[in-house]
Amino acid sequence: QLRAQNQVLKKGVVDEQANSASLKEQLKMKDQSLRKLQQEMDSLTFRNQQLAKRVELLQDELALSEARGKKNKKSVESSSHLSQEQKSVFNEDLQKKIEENERLHILFFEADEQHKRLEAELRSRLEVLETDAAQHQAVVDSLTRKHTDTIEKLQNDKAKLEIKSQTLEREAKDCRLRTEECQQQLKNLQAALGSRLEESLCIINEKVPFNDTRSNQYNALNVPLHNRRNQLKLRDLAGQALAFIQELVTALLNFHTYTEQKVQIFPIDSATDTISPLNQKFSQYLHENASYVRPLEEGMLHLFESITEDTVTVLETAVKLKAFSEHLASYLHFLRKILPYQLKSLEEECESSLCTAALRAKNMELHRDMKRLTAVFEKLNTYISLLVLPSTKPEGLLRTNYNLVFANIAASLHGFHDVLKDISKHYSQKATLEQDVPTATQKLVTTNDCILSSLVALTNGVGKMTSFFSNNLDHFTASLSYGPKGGREFISPLSAECMLQYKKKAVAYMKSLKKPCADSVPYEEALANRRVLLSSTESREGLAQQVQQSLEKIAKLEQEKEHWMLEAQLAKIKLEKENQKLKNSLSGHLTETIQEHSVLPNAAETKKETEKSLRDPIKSSSLAPDVESREDLIKNHYMARIAELTSHLQLADSKSVHFHAECRALAKRLSLAEKSKESLTEELKLASQNISRLQASKLMTTKRSYEDQLSMMSDHLCSMNETLTKQREEIDTLKMTSK
């Protein structure tokens, strides 16, 4: 760049020098012409002065001649002939001098004017040339300064580049040392990466049996990313659509109902006369409109309820759209069924005597509008049935055609709105004409007003629906066609349904993860407890056997308990009998004592004593035999002996169970040790095989790594040589430019 700028500046300086030289030459030529003009002007002024002096002399001579003539008239008269000739000569000469003087004055004036003009031009041009010369001189000075600066800069750059070349040579030496270190590090890294690669490949082969994203059929089962904002937006849009459908259903019900009333009263009132069979059939069909119109609202409501925050709403999962499409098809069937009757009814109305020409024209316009209305519903039904195909038959509609279907639905809604506007306009004109009919009643006027209000409501509702669908068309096309990550679409409705099931399971799993975990045993402690459980006497099998033995003992004890319960009941019965005998004997004895001690006045005290004696007959009476005390002693002795024997038996049982459990635990430990020995021998074999394989692979990898390193080093050296040659060339060019 400096070289190019230097050449451009040199060229500019040469051009400016040439221009200045040419301007100097022109200035010299102008000075020469100016000198010539000044010389001519000086000569002319000198000549003019001579002529002026001569004229003065001639005038003096003339005055003298006149004075002499007065004095010497005679001499003059004598010499008049001669003087006249001289005078004529003088006059001619004077006339010539005057003319020459006048011509010279003119030439002098013209020359003076031309000189002044030329002098002004030359002065102005001289000023311009001086300013140009000053500018050129300033440019030349600036260029010289700039060139000196560039030369100094290039010299500094040269010195810097020399220093840089020296540093680069030192860096090249350092790079050679670094390459050796990098080669060593590369060897180590290759070895580490090889081991890690083998580990990762083993993990992938063990943990990842196949990649499901490669196949569209498997990828369709993956759950796509959940877009909560998208779901809320779709639910909001579905709610708005449900409100619009409700308005549409209400308006259609009113329209069909009031149309039925109109058929009953015009052109023939059914209250006064019988209407035609055609109108009767038409009225009968119109009466069934609610069974075809109300399911539209129900179908849209089910579709709205199916769109929740937790689901994935796309055309493949919108199964409730099929019910709405079926209800719309049934309503279209209803419209097709009533259309011929409606058209014939209008034709019959035109043929009546009350129908005027204007009314007949409006009826024919309505005749065409009703056909257009049915055609618009057929289009809507066709496109909505196409939207149902992804959830029933995905091969029937390609994903690339979704945008086209939505655009056609929007266009059909616009056409529907236009048809309804035409119908409402034509029907309003028809109603005004029917009011002028002589037989028009107030009932007919109110019915027409109701039909017009229903048509206006229908038009407004469809207009809102059209604008709503057109405004959200981009959102529908973008949000109702996304699929799982890495894939383009859902393969079939079955895969979409499976995906939703997997999504529910994933949501349940995420919810379970959010629950706080219960307190658990640490992992190391659990491992230690597991080893203890595997090798201790308190293992599961031993405990199960102990529990089984304990259950058997409990069953035996229960049987013995029942036996001893029966024995105790028999003994109790015997004891009650003996007590009854004692009570009888004691009661007889007490009556005798009461009669003897009748002095005691208080019967209550005697009663208490009798009760006390009855409660404890053995203690109150001193008549108990020694046999019972002896039986009690024997019973107590045997019970103590039985308790001692049972304790010894339980101790012996527990010792036997303990020894049996220890023997079983030792056997289990022995089996576990044998298994661990076998597994360790297998691991040792595998380790030896791996060592041999790794040694072989290490030789191959080291050989390849050496070859790769040599190639990399050669490439690196070549690149360094290229950079050094480039830097040397740059240094040489800078030296040349600085010179």
UniProtKB/TrEMBL annotation:
<dbReference type="InterPro" id="IPR040024">
    <property type="entry name" value="PPP1R21"/>
</dbReference>
<dbReference type="GO" id="GO:0016020">
    <property type="term" value="C:membrane"/>
</dbReference>
<dbReference type="InterPro" id="IPR049372">
    <property type="entry name" value="PPP1R21_C"/>
</dbReference>
<dbReference type="GO" id="GO:0005769">
    <property type="term" value="C:early endosome"/>
</dbReference>
<feature type="region of interest" description="Disordered">
    <location>
        <begin position="68"/>
        <end position="88"/>
    </location>
</feature>
<feature type="region of interest" description="Disordered">
    <location>
        <begin position="593"/>
        <end position="622"/>
    </location>
</feature>
<keyword id="KW-0694">RNA-binding</keyword>
<dbReference type="Pfam" id="PF10205">
    <property type="entry name" value="KLRAQ"/>
</dbReference>
<dbReference type="InterPro" id="IPR019343">
    <property type="entry name" value="PPP1R21_N"/>
</dbReference>
<keyword id="KW-0967">Endosome</keyword>
<keyword id="KW-0175">Coiled coil</keyword>
<feature type="domain" description="Protein phosphatase 1 regulatory subunit 21 N-terminal">
    <location>
        <begin position="1"/>
        <end position="94"/>
    </location>
</feature>
<feature type="compositionally biased region" description="Polar residues">
    <location>
        <begin position="77"/>
        <end position="88"/>
    </location>
</feature>
<protein>
    <recommendedName>
        <fullName>Protein phosphatase 1 regulatory subunit 21</fullName>
    </recommendedName>
</protein>
<dbReference type="GO" id="GO:0003723">
    <property type="term" value="F:RNA binding"/>
</dbReference>
<dbReference type="Pfam" id="PF21636">
    <property type="entry name" value="PPP1R21_C"/>
</dbReference>
<feature type="coiled-coil region">
    <location>
        <begin position="540"/>
        <end position="592"/>
    </location>
</feature>
<feature type="coiled-coil region">
    <location>
        <begin position="663"/>
        <end position="697"/>
    </location>
</feature>
<feature type="compositionally biased region" description="Basic and acidic residues">
    <location>
        <begin position="605"/>
        <end position="618"/>
    </location>
</feature>
<feature type="coiled-coil region">
    <location>
        <begin position="126"/>
        <end position="192"/>
    </location>
</feature>
<dbReference type="Pfam" id="PF10212">
    <property type="entry name" value="PPP1R21_helical"/>
</dbReference>
<feature type="coiled-coil region">
    <location>
        <begin position="20"/>
        <end position="68"/>
    </location>
</feature>
<dbReference type="InterPro" id="IPR019348">
    <property type="entry name" value="PPP1R21_six_helix"/>
</dbReference>
